[in-house]
Amino acid sequence: MNVWPGKPYPLGATWDGGGVNFALFSENATGVELCLFDGEDGRQETAKVWMTEHTDQVWHVYLPDARPGLLYGYRVHGPYEPSAGHRFNPSKLLLDPYAKAIAGTIQWNDSTFGYEIGHEDEDLSWDGRDSAPHVPKSVVIDPAFSWGDDRPPRTQWHQTIIYELHVKGFTARHPQVPPELRGTFAGLSCQPVIDYLHKLGVTAIELMPVHQFVADRYLVDQGLTNYWGYNSIGYFAPDVRYAQSGVLGQQANEFKSMVRTLHREGMEVILDVVYNHTAEGHHMGPTLCFRGIDNSAYYRLSEEDRRYYVDYTGCGNSLNMTHPRVLQLIMDSLRYWVLEMHVDGFRFDLASALARELHDVNRLGAFFDIIHQDPVLSQVKLIAEPWDLGEGGYQVGNFPVLWAEWNGKYRDTVRRYWKGDPGQVADLAYRLTGSSDLYEQTSRRPYASINFVTAHDGFTLRDLVSYNEKHNEANQEDSRDGTDHNLSWNCGAEGPTDDPEIRTLRARQQRNFLATLFLSQGVPMLCGGDEINRTQNGNNNPYCQDNEISWVNWELDKEARDLLKFTRTLAAMFHERPVLRRRKFFQGRRISGSEVKDLAWIRPDGHEMTDADWSDSDLKCFGLRLAGDGIDEIDTRGNRIVDETLLMLLNADGTSVTFVLPTLRGTQRWDLLFDTREPEGTRRQRLLRGGEAYDLADRSLALFRLR
Known about the structure:
Helix content is 20%, strand content 20%. The protein is an alpha/beta fold. It folds into two domains: 158-275 and 313-562, TIM Barrel; 580-706, Golgi alpha-mannosidase II (Immunoglobulin-like), CATH 2.60.40.1180. The strands form eight sheets. An eight-stranded parallel barrel has the order 12-13-16-17-18-19-20-21. Helix 13 (500-519) runs parallel beside helix 14.
């Protein structure tokens, strides 16, 4: 075999049209072997190449005879001293951290651990068995792809509707997707799926993790799996389980084809990324990649005993963001997904963990500074899940400019209000108008708030109004897992019921949540399937359920069809009415010297609320008038949109309220757009004059526009 010295950059396996350059960073290794394999299953090791060249802590070699489709892995030599932070073990075949594709998945075996399982010294022992037959292999890919005239939609934040979905779960049961494409990237770009998303008004799909991930051994041993995918091991590789076309690099092209199709249809692709921890877990975890390449460089280790890991995520480890090569890995990964895979943004799982330079969360940490100065990443959508499990990790409102945040306070307040909890109106006022209390002081805009009521983590919307208690029995953890405090309300009965009154109230509560979401300032995020009554049967943590519990059911009954129609109506209103998606916060001031303020809070008697009203903990019914600024807008299709004045009436009380519609300047007419008391939000009256009374039903929301 011909072997040339190669170059230390770029890291990973790079095909240049003539051969492949391999480069691997390891600060503390004493030697590195490149191992080559045959066949799609990669079980036959055909060659070993010692990487004798070592430049700036990067081991490198060039193989002029290597080609795309080649399977490979590394064996890294060095000290095995867990108490000193070193866990080198060359008997363990390791994935390339920069692998652009990974063939296969792990087949759990004791040999995949660096220590001897059951030994009295546990992980201080050393296991010499070869793990190669049981672990996936890295793949050399050809990066060439015909993108054609692909262009990112670059939808402005204030015009964005995000739809969170799981690649497999969304199409696994879709009757109009060919069976061989269901659950894949290719299935997600089928025309029936595209048409559905278009009619729903979606502008961006947020994919739950698609980086190659690991199904934990303890789950597999119980007949379960890691369905959600928040257990990454390959930060450059689309997960092979979502590919229909092949495992030897075809998965990368299939992902690109999906992105190209969605872009052509005007939809952005946002990736949910997990850079806060890896699938190798704590000190008793397997040796698959980073641990065996350079444990002390890649992971945050305890200062008291470097055998153990600092864990801000509850997943066993935390990546060492203080190390420049770890920062480089993450930045290179992010740039790769933008420049080579053409994605439009990222949602960062447990993002507070990325800001921890020492112990405290530092929102001006190196990670954020680097992103802000980056000419590529500073131009895409950046969304933080602004918390982790460490001390001081709840950082809602504290991320810097350029960042939007999953607004957990929005979720909790909206749930509390519609549940009927007292004293919620004052806080809800902030949430409805963009959460200026969280974002205005840092010079951010209302669209820094990603508003949501439900997400993948927790109850679905249907279950939120159907269960008080979680029902996670299928997870086999005695329901100890999952969130205990969901702020849910079962509307009178736990779980499914045939009681028509309870079913009617549940359906109305779902409409209330959806209407609040789409009428609030900020960016609405809809959890996939909530618009069609998707249920998980009370399981609020189905991370391990790759089955009908998690998959979207496309057999829609009348309730589901009605809810879908209502959701489409709400999305259309969002797109058609600029006052619902303002670029700046309301000021409570008059518009252009007119008599009308840009917003006003209305009591049921038709007058504006006073300070005493805001401090009334029993207040559960109020109105919000949003005044259009008189400036018309051209939408994305070139249509002229008139900025109208809207009036929202909200009543979370258990009794109906007679609400006097406000009068601003003499005689006015209010046109009812919808009322959530109706199954599809259908209007019950056409026009009412200012000063007339409207019967606002218990637990309902009505929307009017000024004629």
